[in-house]
Amino acid sequence: MKKKLLVEGMSCGHCVNHLKTALTEDIQGVEVLEVSLEGKYAVVDMQDSVTEEALRAVIEDLGYELKGIE
C-alpha cells in the first residue's frame, strides 16, 4: 500500500538519504519510493503490517517529526 509521510525537520540532502536508509533498514516491509526535501514528504510502499507507530518511532529517532500520513 502506497502512503505519503509528511515529515518536518529535514534540511539537506544528507537528511533525505538518512531517512531513506532508516525507513528501509529499520522497518521490515517498507520500500521508499521518493523523498522530497522541498515538499517535506516521503512516499513509501509498505505492507499492511507496518504501523504508524513504527514509522513515527524511526522518523523521530532521526530527529524529524511525522506530521501526518496521507
Structural write-up:
The chain is of the alpha+beta class. The protein has two helices and four strands; from the N terminus they run βαββαβ. Helix content is 34%, strand content 36%. A four-stranded antiparallel beta sheet has the order 2-3-1-4, covered by helices on one side. It is globular, with a radius of gyration of 11 Å. The model has no long low-confidence stretch (mean pLDDT 97).
Number of helices: 2
Provide the residue-averaged pLDDT: 97
What global shape is seen?
Answer: globular
Percent helix range? 25-40%
Strand order of the largest sheet: 2-3-1-4
Beta-strand content: 35-45%
**What's the total number of strands?**
4
Alpha-carbon Rg, integer: 11 Å
Give the oligomeric state of the chains in this entry, treating copies of one chain as homo and distinct chains as hetero.
single chain
Query: What is the first-to-last residue Cα distance?
Result: 11 Å
- Low-confidence stretches are none
What is the element string, with H for helices and E for strands?
Answer: EHEEHE
Largest sheet: 4 strands, antiparallel
Which class of secondary structure composition applies to the elements? alpha+beta
